[in-house]
Amino acid sequence: MRLPATMTAIEITESGRPEVLRPAERPVPAPAAGEVLIAVAAAGVNRPDVVQRLGLYPPPPGASDIPGLEIAGTVAALGDGVSGWQEGDRVCALIAGGGYAEFAAAPAPQVLPLPVGCGMVEAAGIPETFFTVWSNVFDRGRLAAGESILIHGGSSGIGTTAIQLAREFGATAYVTVGNAAKAAFCEQLGAARAINYREQDFVDEIKALTGGAGVDVILDMIGGDYLPRNIRALRPDGRILQIALMGGAKGELDLGRLMTRRLTVTGSTLRPRPVAVKGAIAAALRQHVWPLFEAGKIAPVVHRTFPLAEAAKAHELMESSAHIGKIILTVD
Ligand SMILES: NC(=O)c1ccc[n+]([C@@H]2O[C@H](COP(=O)([O-])OP(=O)(O)OC[C@H]3O[C@@H](n4cnc5c(N)ncnc54)[C@H](OP(=O)(O)O)[C@@H]3O)[C@@H](O)[C@H]2O)c1
Predict the structure, then answer these.
(1) pLDDT band at 1 (very low <50, low <70, confident <90, very high)
(2) Checking DSSP bridges between strand 326-330 and strand 234-242, what pairing results, if any?
(3) Which atom of ligand 1 is nearest to the CA of 51?
(4) For residue 250, which phi and psi values (nearest 5 degrees)?
(5) Ligand 1 atom with minimal separation from the 243 CA
(6) Is the Cα torsion angle 244, 207, 265, 131 positive or negative in sign?
(7) Model pTM?
(8) CA of 65 to the centre of ligand 1 (A)
(9) What share of the chain is helix, strand, coil (3-state, %, to 5)?
(10) Would you give the end-to-end CA distance of the chain in angstroms?
(11) pLDDT one-digit tens code per residue, 13-69
(12) Measuring from atom 37 of ligand 1, which residue has the nearest CA?
């Protein structure tokens, strides 16, 4: 492919409101050794991009300052030492930044083929949430068939992914949501019950739904005062996976309950992890999850697309929390 010298990308011109996201001309990145250059057809928008725009989540060393953690497109060029991919291959990839652009470079181990039957828009919505949910819920959290999970933020990109994977791997999923429409959607997607956290106490509801026992696993993006409540909603040997702190980084932990019920509180952030770790997650997804896409059993939930130049509008929508599932930017 003949590559142009420059491309349109969305810059964070300063920290602040969505309008600080503006189109700019940037050089097309040259793929380094071990990287694949992708002509981007669509890029996923994730809450961490919003936090980065606010100046609270800087890119890790070496990552692009352009936002965007996941893309789908076609392979445009290969860096030295890359095998297994060819120009023109249709792929999606997890990246540490640079997705809101016409071209982006991805480490080869983080590149996956488009699942058969999946379009570019849908595929762009896969990597960030599927890598995150797989590595937390299934790797660290060891969610097993027959167990139960409480997923906070059930209608989020992360939540709609976790509901589907829990369902497919034989676990019972309960979710929290902020309104009735989101509750109905999550239950139709496979949640056994959606709890409206604005109207109901999720601890009481989980206790009632599980005969007083509690759940095995909690996927939490809230933190703060959800921590003591999560601890009360867990059954013995239960595990909390903390993946964000929308309610604050500090919470009260009842160590007595932690000891006597043998609970685990852990968590992770995906972006700074090494390529080898992300490559191992990619391989697990290809083995265990790609067949589910290709059998039509799961699909990314896409709420709305915006043209790349309207990234600011996409962020406004995400911050409104009116969406259910993923918001995607499209590139002509
Ligand atoms: N650790 C990692 O590696 C990693 C990776 C990716 C994403 N994340 C984090 O995961 C979270 C979800 O990301 P996303 O891109 O899927 O964002 P998103 O679609 O914007 O989801 C945010 C969700 O939070 C829900 N929410 C807000 N306050 C709540 C509360 N008090 N109780 C329950 N739910 C509440 C909102 O739903 P309602 O409207 O119903 O309130 C919304 O669905 C973000 O915090 C993000 O930073 C972490």
Answers:
(1) confident
(2) unpaired
(3) 47
(4) -115, 140
(5) 1
(6) negative
(7) 0.98
(8) 22
(9) 30, 30, 40
(10) 17
(11) 999 999 999 999 999 999 999 999 999 999 999 999 999 999 999 999 999 999 999
(12) 153
**Residue 315 pLDDT more than 90?**
yes
**Number of neighbours of residue 273 by Cβ within 10 angstroms:** 16
In 107-179, alpha helices (H):
120-124, 127-133, 157-168
Q: What is the pLDDT of residue 332?
A: 86
* pLDDT number for residue 310: 98
Q: What is the mean pLDDT of residues 305-324?
A: 98
Residues 6+ apart with CB under 8 A from 5: 27, 28
CA of 289 to the centre of ligand 1 (A): 22
Q: Which atom of ligand 1 is nearest to the CA of 321?
A: 39
Q: Which contacts (CB < 8 Å, 24+ apart) does range 245-250 have?
A: 245/221, 246/221, 246/222, 247/222, 247/223, 248/223, 248/224, 249/223, 249/224, 250/223, 250/224
pLDDT of 8 over the 90 cut: yes
Give, using CA atoms, the residue closest to atom 48 of ligand 1. 243
Ligand 1 pocket residues where CB is under 6 Å: 46-48, 128, 132, 152-153, 155-158, 176-178, 182, 197, 221-222, 243-244, 246-247, 268-270, 318, 321
CA of 63 from ligand 1 middle (Å) equals: 23
Nearest CA to ligand 1 atom 5: 132
- C-alpha of residue 244 to centroid of ligand 1, in Å: 8
